[in-house]
Amino acid sequence: WAATPEALKTLKKAINAADVYCISDTALALHGRVPFRIMSNSMIAFCARMLGKAGDAQMASLYRRLGGKKAAAEPLFRDVTPAPLPQGHWSFNYGGMGVHRYHDKAVTLKTYNHYVWGYESYLFTLEGTNRFGRYLSNGAMEILPLSGPVSVGRIEPGWDWNRFPGATSLNRPWEVLMCPPEKRIDMLTMVGNRINGSSNLEQQYGAFGSILTEPDQPPRFDPTFRAVKSVFAFGPRLIALGGPITSESEYPVETTLFQYGVQVKDGVERPVFINSAKAIEGETDQTLEEPCFLADANDNAYFVFRSGGKIRVRRGLQESRSHKTLEPISGKFATAWLEHGVKPDMAGYEYLVVLDLAPEQAEAYYQELQQKKPYRVLRQDAQVHAVEDFPSGVTAAIFFEAQPELNWPLLRSVEQPCYVMYRRTGENALSLSLNTPDLAGFIREGYCDLPEVKQDVAAENRDRLVRIRLAGNWHLAEPVAGVELKQENGDTVISGAFRHGIAKQLQLRK
Predict the structure, then answer these.
(1) Structure pTM?
(2) Tens digits of per-residue pLDDT, 465-475?
């Protein structure tokens, strides 16, 4: 009855992946149609334990960490060294997401595209599921620590469904935000956009891109809404760019920084920090000028350099609706957002999130940032989002559209939409990753109320080709499957064949 080696290898791969995207829970965007349930890592721990008992040392080490005191009490695992926490950046493009791990925190970056829908809303009984969670994947950026979602304030009573952390969206009244009551299922995709997703360099540094639109189905949706978003992840630094952002809707467009419940079981309430290390523990409703900084109650600092409108922060009672019964529910929350306003025209934003930065450290760091940022924005428009991070030496660029001519010192042209990341590893050495999240004709079976999607049958299961041009003569230090280099007029043309949204990691020598 033994499982085959291939089956065990697949199971182990799934366990390791789940260990990356589930820390003490998964992000709200991964909860599908049942938000706010707790999706613990107990199943991951169980599988790791069974494989560990079967003799897999790596799985035994993983169980020793996940199992905690229970694993330490088992004779078989007592002397096993616990596996370290995952560190770095992973791309899960069949889920339209990237996961960035730093110390004991997991940052989930979530979008949707031609192949991956953004939310699920069901009405099978009198009680529905996820009736308001339309923005789960609107470029969301949720930060979770080991201590878990409830302990850091992710609770449903009072949760503002218009404001998922990191998301850009229209702030709609509940009756408009709610998925149509006459529909049994609602899970719209963004037809046509194939480039939304994630990439990484050396699985340490990440790039996440998202073009958001809505279907032409007024009044619940706004076909004039469009937002181009990106997040670049380098260790504790998350650089968030937005723009251009446009809409002709009557409802205001916002980008949420954070939202968390302030009440905890022991009666102590979580504060919020506004331009100071002094904790604000009472009610407040402020409009700030840029630049400014905010800090949440979990040592995450937000430095806003450009808001594309107003910067708002509020701490106090919020009223919302139950995603099942639609009944009013309320709670005390701390919420911060960028208010782009009604009918924004080419609005944009730029902010930096630093993980594991205490409020008193954030206040001092804010003064340093006034003199010099640890990065520079190379380009931020509808076609390209790109940054250069100084501490890591990484340049990361998302090409939402091809760029036949670039005047960059190294990168000269990009022939197809793609993700390019690179860093110098020596005077004549370069580490470069190339990727496209385009899943190449992945066939999605339709469900009863889903809009018909024209499938790219000709491209089904075929490679997506990407070609870029670098200045200078380069060669591969080691061959990479599906990658070819060609010298042309003193430049190097790199051609790559991609499948499943997996990045190619290249080591180049001059």
Answers:
(1) 0.94
(2) 899 999 999 99
